């Protein structure tokens, strides 16, 4: 049975300023919605397990998909209140892993060796690794074949420097997503800010920004 593992952040605020952050809701809901419509079950894991904070800005102007899940108590409990810890995950149960975004991910995703090992296992056994927006920083520690970095030499995308500047958070994040991906040896590509942009490289699927979450999911389904 095909099953997806969705990774979410535990980080509730920026490190340098007194500003709340966390998961960007639509980057979870729009991917998850496509999975369910294709009869693919999903579990939710975070670096520490348990509670997942939501970026308050992601709760303004909720669309129909966001509302469907945000008002669902069962979804709230499973995806936002009681996420699994990495040590509770058996990677053999999943053929897909998906890293959601939100600025919170920039602090805990790159530091989670445990989640990176799960992603590496899924990929090396023939599964799909996917990520969107800031969530692509979770790929930085993931190893692929021959213990090399998974993203080395692969074409991908993620939140661009231009988008970070437009968001007025360039100086507030610990590093710039675009710069980090390039430094790690990836062939980084971006298009117009805040438009749906997806790149596929072998079994790696990445999206540039929140607007890309649904398209990432659809590309994953195509690969399957």
Keywords:
224 residues, alpha/beta, 6-stranded mixed beta sheet, two-stranded parallel sheet, 8 helices, globular
Note the topology.
Blueprint lengths: L2 E5 L17 H13 L3 E5 L18 H7 L2 H9 L14 E4 L5 H4 L4 H12 L3 E5 L22 E2 L4 H6 L10 H7 L3 E2 L9 E4 L2 E4 L5 H11 L1
Parallel strand pairs: 1-2, 1-3, 3-4, 4-8, 5-6
Antiparallel strand pairs: 7-8
Helix pairs in contact: 1-2, 1-8
Describe what you observe in this structure:
This protein is of the alpha/beta class. About 30% of the residues lie in helices and about 15% in strands. The protein is built from eight helices and eight strands. The strands form two sheets. It has a six-stranded mixed sheet with strand order 2-1-3-4-8-7, with helices on both faces. The protein has a two-stranded parallel ribbon with strand order 5-6. Helix 1 links the parallel strand 1 and strand 2. Helix 1 packs across helix 2. The longest helix is centred in the N-terminal third of the chain and has 13 residues. It is globular and about 40 Å long. The chain starts with a strand and ends with a helix.
Q: What is the N-to-C order of secondary-structure elements (H for helix, E for strand)?
A: EHEHHEHHEEHHEEEH
The outline comes out as globular
Mean pLDDT: 97
- Strands, count: 8
Strand order of the largest sheet: 2-1-3-4-8-7
Q: Fraction of residues in helices?
A: 25-40%
| Structural class label | alpha/beta
Strand content: 5-15%
């Amino acid at each position: 049975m095909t099953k997806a593992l969705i990774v979410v952040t535990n980080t509730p605020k920026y490190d340098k300023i007194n500003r709340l952050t966390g998961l960007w809701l639509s980057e979870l809901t729009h991917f998850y919605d496509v999975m369910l419509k294709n009869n693919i079950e999903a579990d939710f894991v975070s670096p520490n397990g348990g509670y997942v904070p939501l970026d308050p800005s992601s709760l303004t102007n909720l669309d129909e998909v966001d509302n469907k899940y945000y008002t669902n108590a069962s979804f709230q409990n499973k995806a936002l209140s009681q996420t699994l810890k990495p040590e509770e995950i058996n990677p053999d149960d999943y053929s897909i892993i998906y890293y959601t975004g939100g600025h919170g991910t920039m602090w805990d995703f790159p530091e989670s060796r445990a989640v990176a090992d799960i992603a590496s296992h899924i990929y090396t056994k023939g599964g799909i690794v996917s990520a969107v927006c800031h969530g692509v920083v979770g790929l930085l520690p993931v190893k692929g074949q021959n213990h090399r970095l998974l993203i080395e030499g692969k074409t991908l995308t993620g939140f661009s420097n231009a988008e970070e500047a437009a968001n007025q958070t360039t100086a507030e994040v610990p590093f710039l997503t675009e710069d980090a991906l390039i430094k790690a040896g990836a062939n980084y590509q971006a298009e117009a800010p805040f438009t749906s942009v997806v790149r596929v490289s072998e079994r790696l699927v990445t999206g540039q920004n929140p607007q890309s979450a649904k398209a990432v999911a659809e590309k994953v389904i195509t690969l399957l």
